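User: Hey, quick favor. My workstation is busy. Could you predict this chain's structure for me?
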Amino acid sequence: MVMEVHRTNQSRLLRKQARGECAYCGTPVEWYDRYDARRIPLSPELPAAQIPERYQWHISRGVAYPGVDPRAPRYCRVPHPAMCPALEHADLPPELGDVVAVLAVRMRKRIDSGFVPTLPPAPGDDQERDGDEGKPSRRPGPTAPERVRHTVHYTGSLRLGPGPLEDLQCTAAREDGARCPNPVFVTGEGRWELLDLPHLPGRRGQMILSASNGKMWVWSLTTLDFPAAARWLRQRCPAHDDHTAAFCRPEWEDFHPLRHSDFIVARKPEGYEPAPGDGPTIHDGPRTLRQCAQTGCHNTTPAAVPDGWLCWQCRKRLNRRTGARRPQRRPGPPA
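Assistant: No problem, here it is.
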């Protein structure tokens, strides 16, 4: 069976792929694309008359908007963090207290049946409770990014790593059969580069381009020679840059801006490139330069020359004026 999104739908997210469970309480939730290029977990439809106005959301063409749908004002949806029983709700309205109590009973039943909940965030963390805050938040669910993943660029291809560059681990196997713990990253190999994102179709693609200004920071390997770049692509450390047995396959993943939009790096990371003066010096220039002794000439030389040194241009003009090294005229044929 082939599933396709209707052409009039503003979201490219399939409902089958957007269903999940809250990592804190295990309640089934549905993730939707928000109007501001973010995502939000929503509950099933509830009677709008029993829900406070600031908790009301509706769906229009696959995109979540705050408020009640004017075409169907009797029902609305509620962001799941606003009534998750695993979180503390200090200012919870009485209208949602009964819903939270019912979900708490279901949560205890799931725990008794083997569900292992994730530790909820601290009260001081930026947890989106009512779904109408403008700050980025930590949202429960399997689709929320738990770590930073950097992208590597080489010869026009983008590869997404399993984490930051410094956490990229060698895939070679040691003599004892364990995986090599050495990192792949070496300071001085590669640099950060700002690339343009390709054209992304649909409303989802346009929201990604708007949120990232159409650009992303990637770690470029184009300045390296082929052996050094091949070591990165094989995910090997400098000590195992040979045909050593592999403990596992490389963990690279082909980067796709739609599937991996959560890992687009919009701000250049710091602390990866060597500071000025830390790397090897190829040529720092001569310490002293001797200038040509001719008045008005600005030619210089780093070589050790005596006082009164003239550059080759001034020496040539001087020889022309003084007649030095003038070729002698050959004698003509005898009369």
